[in-house]
Amino acid sequence: MPFERSPSPFLMASPATRTGFDAPVDSHAAACDVPSITIVRPHSPFSSSSQYSSEPLDIERWDQNGRFRVAYDAPSSSSSSSSPSTHQLLMLDSDSPMIDDTESPPDYHTTVKKPTVLVKYQFTSTSYNTMTIMPCSDGEETRQAKYHITVSMNCFMPLNHITTIRRGGTELGEFVAQFEMGISGSESTFILNNGTESPISSTLTKRMGSRHDGLWFWVPVTRSKKNILLWDLRETPFICRSIIDYGSGADESTLATFTPARQIKPGQPPVLAQLSVTPKGQDFFDHLLLAILIIERKRLTPGKGKTLKQLFN
To answer: CA 180 to CA 290: how far, in whole Å?
Structure first.
């Protein structure tokens, strides 16, 4: 037998016997003990200054759509002509929470000033396949992560690994770039935040020396001369320079330096990889970071003999 809700004797009463409406109340209705209902709005999670508020509700009744209509005593103000009437009618879904929409969530858009001095960043591992780039100084942006880097496996080609760079300290940050390298018959590629996918060989080239101590040129898709970067691996730390300012002196053209991580010695803490970026280099941060990550992958990949060189893309 299906369950049926028994109508409340109060709901079956005539409008004249219900309190809370603009109708005369007789002696029989006055004898009915109708409890007062109070709905309390929960504390707003967006403000520490908001207080609990409650509104007494006199009557509730169900409509044909399974929703209940609530008549309540609204606050009145003698100083305002636009104040609501004493009795107002609300339509609420029975399963809808009471939400206080008088307050707005905080503004998460913050403006970060461009550094005016050299800033040193460390590559810090946070899990087996994730690392973040953090300022070394405690006072620099309260040590908020600049980039979040993850490495995942290509399930169809397990010997290929995909590196994803995002802005900020979590995997939910803004997408910056992604590249895939490993043992594969296809050419290695990278993707920028504008959706452009290009072969790595079309942007990153080695002009002289070996992969361990050579000169690497990073030529973005725009082919603009001012965006061409030169990574010099002949000395440690590696130096990144701007081609357009190369003839104006080492200090003027230097955008960043990179010190690779050193092997862990027994009983000593590991020496983390470090990237130092000049104020001028901040404008090229995305590109110089992407370039050095790819260069390090190539530099550390086994490359002795023609067989291994052809094996890794």
So the answer is: 12
